[in-house]
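Dear colleagues,

For the upcoming journal club I promised to circulate an example of a predicted protein-ligand complex. I picked one with NAP because it came up in last month's discussion. The inputs are reproduced below in full, followed by the predicted structure.
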Amino acid sequence: MSEGNHATVAVTGVTGALGSRIASRLADHGVPQLLVGRSPDRMPELPGAQRRGPAAYADADASDMRKALKGASTLILVSGHRTGRRLEEHATAVEAAIAVGVDRVLYVSLVSASPTATYLNARDQWLTEQFLAGAGIRHTVLRSGFYTSTPAALANEEFVVNGPGSTGRAAFVTHEDIADVITAVALDEGPRSEHDGATLEITGP
Ligand SMILES: NC(=O)c1ccc[n+]([C@@H]2O[C@H](COP(=O)([O-])OP(=O)(O)OC[C@H]3O[C@@H](n4cnc5c(N)ncnc54)[C@H](OP(=O)(O)O)[C@@H]3O)[C@@H](O)[C@H]2O)c1
């Protein structure tokens, strides 16, 4: 524990919609943080938070990522944008975390991640989950549902969303709700957590 009663948490994706909300909630709880990403100048200013980087998941030898993660106990790894190399990119971040003594990883995945999913992103996310399961570090997989903000962004002028799926139902969920859940899991500190090894699905109603 490095400050108050909380261990230091490193959060990625903090220039984005989800990571910034997680970081803001952790700051409200007085958790010391390392904000990690490609553009420290675009990161939020939060009490108890240090901006670290530039550090990208794509960092081939991971030295920037190792430097950025130094001192963290927990890493909240928000998945990156689709590049076709997501597994490799996420894997370098996890390996960098292990190399500098990070104790656990909370990985933000996607609901229904599976090797046989129709949706490419769900197959991609499953690959990182598998990597994490074999990496030998405490971890929790947080599979978030589809964001409520996504359909509006994808709809055409007739309000139709065309995608690689059939008819069906989805439990869309807000970034706020996802950030609340991930913050709660992160705050469940200590040498053991009931969430170690768990895969939690975060969906809306
Ligand atoms: N559940 C869903 O419906 C859904 C929908 C869309 C995406 N997603 C996934 O959920 C993630 C978080 O969602 P969001 O809404 O917060 O997305 P967002 O607003 O686009 O934020 C993504 C964050 O990830 C960072 N990032 C992306 N690629 C990176 C890389 N290679 N190395 C380091 N940082 C990288 C971005 O940094 P920069 O500012 O430097 O780009 C940004 O901070 C997305 O990245 C995507 O994997 C889920």
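Two points we might discuss: Residues 12-19, 37-39, 56-58, 78-81, 89, 110, 144, 146-147, 150 surround NAP (CB under 6 Å). Residues 142 and 200 are 5 Å apart (CA to CA).

See you all on Thursday,
B. R.
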